[in-house]
Amino acid sequence: MRHFAVTFVSIFALSLGALAGGAPTANAQQSGPIRLAPLPPPESLSDGAPTNGPVRAVEQPTTSRDAALKPGGVLIRGLDAVAEDAVGVLDVPNGGLGDDMWAGTDHTTAVRLLTTLPSRYPVGEARELIRRLLLSVATPPTGGGPVADGGKSGLLAARVAGLVSIGAPGDAIELARAAHSRRVPDHLARSIVSANFLRGDLTAGCDVLDGYEAGYVDPFWQKALVICQIVAGKGAEASLGLDLLREERGDTDGVFQNIAYSAAVGAPVAPEQLETPGAADILTFAMLTVARAELPDWMLASNDPALVRAMLVSPQVDQARKLALAHRALRHGVVDAGDVVAVYDGLGASDEDIAAALLEPDTVDRDVWLAYLYLAARNQTVAIARSEALWEAWTLAQAAELDDIVMTTTAALLADVPATSDFGWLAAAATRAALLAGEHDLAIEWYQLVVRQARSVADMARATALMWPEMRVIGRNLPDAPEAEPVAAPAQNTDPRTGVPANIAAPITGAVVSPAAADRLGQLIAQTPRAPVPWSPTRLSRWIDLAGNNEGTADIGTALYLLQILGDPVSEEHWRSVPVATDPATDDRGTIPSTAALAGLARAAIAKRRAEVTLYAMIVLGQAGETPHAGVVANVVRGLQRVGLDADAQAIARAALVARVQ
């Protein structure tokens, strides 16, 4: 078998030579090393908008040779004297985690955690936080060294691979280009090939493969070469490679091979070839793209964020199935509202089509109907007309038990409706929509209108109480405008701000505040800046009374626990309303994360190692399933608070607390 592997690689190398010598690849005419393909305009999906943050690089005089390498007329300098691991595209003003984020973390630990990161998270806020970390400009951790162009896994390679994994291929290409503007080194090549394949830019991916020098022993490269040979019109070479693949690997990649054989001879892929499920991965997706075959249901069933985002912009998926995929992915936290709206924009529906469908909803598919509810509201540009369209959309969606989707996608449209008394009738629903979508500023603005009306309107008073815990989570003052320090009951080695044990190697439990401490806290609160949603034990008690009899409210125990972890003085009286025993029929504890990850989060938080805390927190959250237990969320929130990521901690707590009525 070893002898055969050598023969296999040799023949593939010869095939590659033929590929490079032919006309088809984009860089075939180019002398010198391969560079990254220029980025197209920003994508509509959440793939990382182009950033204006700095890139660590050494400025050097531009030569005529340099000018020839300028992508799109702009040369991004490569790194000569600066380690590639220091490169980033986000500084602190643009969302980066800071130049010192790796302080205290060694290189081995950093790479180990980066390569352990999950691709999926139960809340979109977690994905955005890890995206920012991966793109941050920062001094590298200690213990690293220059990465030779020989496949060695370093910090940059792990960051680029992580971006591809979470479905941000454009960001991955941008980060790689920031470090290596002239050529894709071998240790980044696999990720950049994958990123280009996900974007549907097969030519750019094949350009990178053409410059890869480490050999094609790995099945990924063998299959990628077959794809590129077909793209280049070298069907005979591709068929030879497929024969070798089949001889070496048998029928383990039968679906990929069958599609490739058809594509190699220019034959259409027959529906029966796709009936048996194959591997739902990047290379199968790319081969289906090459073959211009409609993506099968087993591919669309994937929850892989990278594939889902790629499929939402793929021309190989019809609009109806694309809508269904977008709505399912939104509910599972795989995509956000912007991703779904981008699919809506691609429908090209006329006002007449939308009006007819809304008058007779049974005449259109459910997912199309949901899109039309959004488009009908967006097409109204006058505030009063838009508010009425939003109200109708939310009401109809609630009757169909789909209001979580419609509220999440339409919440951003509230920006053009003023939160004034003229629109007070919309305030409670608008607050809920903004909460679901994570539009914190909009939620606070509309909630304050609800509070003002609560003095005279009974329904508004009730709405104020029902949403109070979620609003308190996002409506508290951050450390740059602190509220009064909660005074906890005396405890040894305890954090005075929250009553949480300073050593969080033990599970975070918070501290119950005594009546005397609560009285002293009340005096301090009166002397501090008023938060948008100030602490109120009375409102919390009122919410507890209502929550037990209203579906769609947050779990009482979870709400109290997260408020306490965030620093609020939840009293013993409040906790008495929560049963200590659990109901197996209703209690969903999620998946228990790795003990090593929980312990690592505790150690990193005590030492205040920012990047390490963030990585451990995201690993813990990613392992906790779609409904993480409050204890898991509390560990994540408290860890992020300890390293100054309070806004991210609040966003994750809010996402975990908000009840999605489905």
Short description:
This protein is mostly helical and 662 residues long.
| Largest β-sheet summary | none
Instruction: Work out the helix count.
Output: 32
Rg from alpha-carbon coordinates: 27 Å
Enumerate the spans where pLDDT stays under 50 for 5 or more consecutive residues.
1-46, 48-81, 148-152, 481-510
Cα-to-Cα separation, first versus last residue: 54 Å
Mean model confidence by pLDDT: 82
- Beta-strand residue percentage: under 5%
Task: Write a structural description.
By secondary structure, the chain is mainly α. The protein folds into three domains: 226 residues, no CATH class; 116 residues; 178 residues, no CATH class. 53% of the residues lie in helices and 0% in strands. The chain contains 32 helices and no strands. It starts with a helix and ends in a 5-residue tail after the last helix. The N terminus is likely disordered.
Descriptive tags:
3 domains; mainly alpha; 662 residues; 32 helices; single chain
Write the layout of secondary structure elements.
Layout: H1 2-21, H2 64-68, H3 107-114, H4 124-135, H5 155-165, H6 169-179, H7 186-198, H8 202-210, H9 219-231, H10 235-249, H11 254-264, H12 282-291, H13 297-300, H14 305-312, H15 319-331, H16 337-345, H17 351-359, H18 366-378, H19 383-399, H20 403-410, H21 427-437, H22 440-454, H23 458-466, H24 468-474, H25 515-525, H26 537-547, H27 556-566, H28 572-575, H29 595-607, H30 610-623, H31 630-642, H32 646-657
Helix pairs in contact: 1-9, 1-10, 3-5, 3-30, 4-30, 4-32, 5-6, 5-7, 6-7, 7-8, 8-9, 9-10, 9-12, 10-11, 11-12, 15-16, 17-18, 18-19, 18-20, 19-20, 20-21, 21-22, 22-23, 24-27, 24-32, 27-31, 29-30, 29-31, 30-31, 31-32
